[in-house]
Design a protein that fits this description.
This is Diacylglycerol kinase. Belongs to the diacylglycerol/lipid kinase family. Keywords: ATP-binding, Kinase, Lipid biosynthesis, Lipid metabolism, Magnesium, Metal-binding, Nucleotide-binding, Phospholipid biosynthesis, Phospholipid metabolism, Transferase. It holds the Pfam family YegS_C. The protein is an alpha+beta fold. The chain folds into two domains: 118 residues, Rossmann fold (3-Layer(aba) Sandwich), CATH 3.40.50; 162 residues, Tumour Suppressor Smad4, CATH 2.60.200.40. The chain has a six-stranded antiparallel β-sheet, with helices on one face. Strand 1, helix 1 and strand 2 form a beta-alpha-beta unit. Helix 9 packs antiparallel against helix 10. The mean pLDDT is 86.
Length: 312
Amino acid sequence: MTRKARLIYNPVSGHEQMPKAVADILDVLEQAGYEASAFRTTPEENSAKNEATRVAEAGFELVVAAGGDGTINEVVNGLAFLENPPKVAIIPAGTTNDFARALGIPRDDPVKAARVVLDQHTLKMDIGKAAFQDHDNYFVNIAAGGSLTELTYGVPSEIKSALGYSAYLIKGAEMLPHLTENHMRLTYDEGVYEGKLSMFLLGMTNSIGGFEQIMPDAQLSDGLFQLIVVKPADPANLLRLMALALNGRHVDDPNIIYTKTKNLKVELIGESADKPLPVNLDGEIGGYCPVEFTNLHRRIEFFVGQTKNITK
């Protein structure tokens, strides 16, 4: 019986390079033994998500997500709730491409990324589930909340390329006068943190904003989140923590909690209880606190390249 693959691509990702590569990518998928077809996403809300669900329910064996981290997140949200989701391949065409970086997928050539399917190396990867009060959402790379969260995604890619981690320090210094602290209760496997904090990060991979040292012990399929909690700190101390984090030397700092957990419950308490606090999932707002996170161990099977961050 013929195996079917659907390429779901964002035509505006990566300086609009994807449309030119579609024919060659479909040819690679045909070489891999699939009857391949393509779907061009539209500005309509949940375009990629709905198409991923549709083809999965139609019996397609492979979904290829081509675009930036947002497109990949949307495809995953269309598949993660299914009992038997199809395999997924990633073709990065965005600016940061954190998840593709973690999977060892080539990020400089869409057709080269597609050829990873030919090697037939797959592993079932963990997916994060975020249960909000009125809906569920899924993520593959990072969840974050708190006033420092903008730092994770607020630095333009061209500035990161030119300045490296210094760009984050500059952005952090710009944000310092406007930072606020939230009074929160975080309940995780090994304990409870209750008090004020500047930010929490819940990581699935070791790559955040293109840096690979912020979650130094991350594994892609061990069933555990990496949790970082940044406690309140004076402005000068926050800049010091940011510098340490971007070089992987922050985990033992007394202002940081760094641990692994399968679950995390986040609640606003005290004077912060009535504040709307957004939760960022893979670079986009996924909902508002309170929220409960669960690690869905090895939920989706991905094609992978060469990477050291996989627990078999």
